[in-house]
Amino acid sequence: MSSRGSEHAADTPIRLDKWLWAARMFKTRALATTAVHGGKVHVNGARVKPAHPIRISDIVAIQRGSDELTLVVQAVSTHRGPATIAATLYDETTESRAARTRRAVDRAAFAQTPHSQGRPSKKDRRALTRFNRSTHF
């Protein structure tokens, strides 16, 4: 990172909300804090508070909308840098990456399903009525 001390030593923990902000998971620390309070972020499988100390090799699970990320902390930083440097702070697990890809494919397939044309016309309603009457046992 930079020479102004933004990267901590390997054994120095930092706050969870600060790390989430520095890793560019959330745009502001306030949004990160809100997500942690809301139970959208878990560390090592446990629900934690925003001031929870994060160390290298911790597993952070983040739920954003319909996506769920599982990250392994690779480095800690208190400063928010460029996205290329922020990406070095964590490593997404292969299971998480595969699940995200599957959900993206499912969303794309759902978006391509044809929508109904709206309310059926009088002719269509009569055809539906005939069909429904003929299928009753």
Structural account:
The chain contains five helices and seven strands. By secondary structure, the chain is α+β, with helices and mostly antiparallel strands. A hairpin with a 2-residue loop joins strand 5 and strand 6. It is elongated and about 75 Å long. The N and C termini lie far apart (74 Å). The model is unreliable at 1-5 (pLDDT under 50).
Give me the secondary-structure topology:
Layout: E1 14-15, H1 16-22, H2 29-37, E2 41-43, E3 46-47, E4 53-54, E5 59-64, E6 67-73, H3 83-86, E7 90-92, H4 94-111, H5 122-135
Antiparallel strand pairs: 1-4, 2-3, 2-5, 5-6, 6-7
Helix pairs in contact: 1-2
How much helix is in the residues?
A: 25-40%
Give the strand content.
15-25%
Name of the CATH class: Alpha Beta
What best-fitting shape do the alpha-carbon axes yield? Answer: elongated
Whole-angstrom Rg: 24 Å
Structural class: alpha+beta
The separation of the N and C termini measures: 74 Å
Give the tally of structural domains: 1
Query: Stretches where pLDDT falls below 50 for ≥5 residues?
Result: 1-5
| Helix-strand sequence | EHHEEEEEHEHH
Strand order of the largest sheet: 3-2-5-6-7
Mean pLDDT equals 88
Summarize this, please?
The protein is an alpha+beta fold. Helices cover 38% and strands 18% of the residues.
Looking at this protein, list some descriptive labels.
elongated, disordered N terminus, alpha+beta, 5 helices, Structural Genomics Hypothetical 15.5 Kd Protein In mrcA-pckA Intergenic Region, Chain A, about 140 residues
